[in-house]
Fold:
Amino acid sequence: MSGGYLLYGDVGSGAVAVEAALVLARQPYDLIEAPTSEPDDPAGGDRVLAANPLRQVPALVLPSGETMTESAAILIWLAEQHPEAGLAPAAGDPARAAFLRWMAFVSAAIYSLYWVKDDPARLAPDPAAQPALVARTLDRISECWGMMEAQVSPGRYILGDRLTVLDLYVTVVSRFNPRRQRFYDVAPRLGEVVRRVDADPRLAAFWPARYPFDPGWDRPS
Structure:
């Protein structure tokens, strides 16, 4: 290890939000690529198995040797450990309640649905039923983004004029299917925020390496 963090992640995964937070906090980390979303590459899941029995990324090994999983928890923890980076409202800040609420909302109401969407056979063994399950899941994801849009009052960023790990989290998760085109339709003000994060000069070298803006990246696949 570099003396900092050890992150199990994958290009285009939820771990990218954690990587971005480490970059903005200027924290050294080593990366183990573990492409757990590829059914033809079980070795990816095997690589993360020792750190996370769910075979999911991100998994973050702390300098102390302790392992953290769950992207929202990792992001909150990193922001608290590195307050100099200003990546979360501090305890007692009026924005703290909204910060915790929406971090949990994105994790529980939206991110968790990809367990179904990415492998509908987990809940619908009949192949004939799976397309409808995926379609309904994507509809629910869009509906939840719309709910969030209706209940926040963004400034330059979701909680005001300072970028937080919530902005990083939404920026990454909004790139998953049904992708940004639909996200912009249901959450236009949040869309302005994530475009701003996309363009942050501190992440100019990071995005092409970890979540490239390839042609058609914003359209449903």
Summary: Residues 130-151 form the longest helix (22 residues). The domain at 96-200 is CATH 1.20.1050.10 (Glutathione S-transferase Yfyf (Class Pi); Chain A, domain 2). The CA atoms of residues 87 and 164 lie 4 Å apart.
